[in-house]
Amino acid sequence: MDPTLVTTSDGMTATLRIPAGQALSPETLRRLLHDAGVVVGLQTPALLAAGRVGAVERVLVVARGEPPSPGMDGWVEPLVREPEAAYGEGRVDLRELHHFREIHAGQGVLRLVPPHPGKPGRTVRDEEIPAPEVHPADLAPCCGPGVIISPEDPSIAVAEASGIYQRFALAGRLSLQVCQRVEVPGDIDLTIGNIDTQFPILIRGDIHSGFVVKTAADLEVDGSIEDARVTAQGSLDVKGGLLVGRQRVKAHGDLHARHCQARPIRARHVLFDMGCVGATIAARGQVQAREILGGDITAAAGVICDVLGSPEGLPTRITVGVDPFESGLHAWAVANLPLLQEALEHERERGKCLAHRIQTLLSAGEDHAADDAALRHSAQEVHGLVADITRAQEAIANHPERLAKARALEAIATIEVRRQCYPGVTVVIGDHQLLVTQALGRVRFRWSKDGIAVEG
Q: Cα separation of 393 and 289, whole Å?
């Protein structure tokens, strides 16, 4: 039997069959390879083995083709970093994950990465094997509300307007949207972390203790607020309650909640659908609640409630006709203005020294990156100190006018109790103070030049 050389149907392998007791000379091997057209992927060890006599029939793979290298389909790459936890002293604060990122109009959020073609293969007969086809990605299905394909560069998707960047999977595909409101589908807890944004916020659940929520706009909470620090530059609407805690709840606009328990609160107008127990409230406008049991409430425009105080004589102090913020702001300004001015002078001198040092390092051709960073930080400190000094100067200059306006509230601010006022309640209107010593029914307290008038 003579030796035979065959190739597989796909041309990727050439196999040499040698009968027992035979060896092939180099000339025979070359002839067999030439006749079969095998020129690619020759296997040197197998060819050398063919030249040696074997005791049994042998089947040697003498050539292997080169398979094609697959390419890579195009894909869509996010351009906004995923949240990272805040690290410090070997610890991770999961509350600072910042799941909601603010981006500006025109900022790139997605990039189309073109496909990378594969490399063709070769058969043992030196025939080309095409690489698998690659496909481009489609950017459009990934663009949710507020995200558009850039008119200047169709490979980039950008934010149509400034807003909140949100990334999620839709039907197994990456999708992004930029919203004008932060919407939290559940609670503010470790899965969400703290929020600090200029956009309105809607929270579908509760705000858990220990977290911070701040917005430069309105805030809506479908649940309750535990002992968390909450600030809204706009209004604050809480469908549940403000639960017991030491952390302040503040709204520059109006605050509305179902109830409140032993909580410090600052707002313009305050409205509770049910009771307010043991709260410390400062309001530039009016405070209204069904029941006010204990606590210290100051409301410039007045207080309205059904029940004031408690049968047990729970200490309750109500002050109206006084701006609760003016005296504190004026005291802060008087105490801190000299300190702020001194700090500003010191920081300006420090900035001059840093600038001189940088100039010296530049002349010497030395590295000055650290000093550049320190100078930028100093400039930021100066900017903040100037803002604080301006605020303090305005507070001092405007104090007489604001005090006069506050005094004018004395004549119109009232405390109206629609059902029951219990002993132990202290009423303060302007400079006048009255301790309620007996139970009263429907009653209104108002200012008069002789003291506090009690009208039944």
A: 37
